[in-house]
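#struct-help
A.M.: can someone run this one for me? Single chain, 322 residues.
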Amino acid sequence: MTIWENSWLKSPGELVPHPRVSIRPIKSVDVVINLNSGASNKEFVRRKLTEIFQENGIDVHISLARRGQEVAELARRAADGSSQIVIAGGGDGTVNAVASVLAHTDKMLGVLPIGTLNHFAKDLHIPLDLEGAARTIIAGHAIDVDVGEVNEHIFVNNSSLGLYPSIVRERQKQQRLGFVKWPAFVWAAFSVLRRYPFLDISLIVDGKKFRSRTPFVFVGNNEYQMEGFNIGSRPRMDAGVLSVYMTLRTGRLGLLRLALRAFVGGLRQEKDFIALHTHEARIETRHKTLRVAMDGEVFVLMAPLLYRVHPQALRVLVPEEG
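D.P.: on it. Structure tokens below:
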């Protein structure tokens, strides 16, 4: 069974540009830098940022977080201050922590993508170099983007169940044993794929129920490219939809086949792949709790899971064009 329901979305040629607003002049900014994010020298980052902002007449206050929970705490303090802009310095998990504080407020999010993957920054065409990202913030062009939510937890990129949360959990275990991040991730992926756990779930979307035994469920904030060389990117961030992807009883070889078909453009013809677009989705299971990944971090949430999209709930500083 193949389900690919997105005909009511605009095609890429019909995309309407994000409406932009200008917030110049900028008088002050608050920056929260995650010391555990990425491999960059955080002391150099702090000195360079101070130099860039001050030479543009902008007061800057920089806070350093030593653990994930501290990022959100520092972001809340910054949001209570006088600055209209709170900047997340780190990867997607850091952006998530700051965005969760700023969503549905009049504060604006700046992004310094100094993490490992930086999917959020890439999808918004924010420069990946420190100076380029800082000058994007100084330019003061902002757009409103959507955020996703599952059981009152915000995500800016995606949320998933099954294989990926298990891999992250195993990677963290290996890191505690002394492995660095990428070797730990490779070992974790091998370990989890060897066990290849399945989830028995019911997915309810727009009144339709899909029962499945599946290795993963992926819920994206807006539509993800699932075929071709741009796989994993999003053409827009303000369509007001969730994208839901999962497979039906697919084994290891079947998962590899899906990956290959995604790259050659044949995923839409795959009988065991489901792709849906909706405003709300519910996932039910016989388990009381589920491990849920959100923007690269793993949480244990009570079942059932209720996913929703919050249209244009977050204002983000982005390049003037792109």
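A.M.: thanks! The first strand starts at residue 3 and ends at 5.
D.P.: also worth noting: The chain is about 30% helix and 35% strand.
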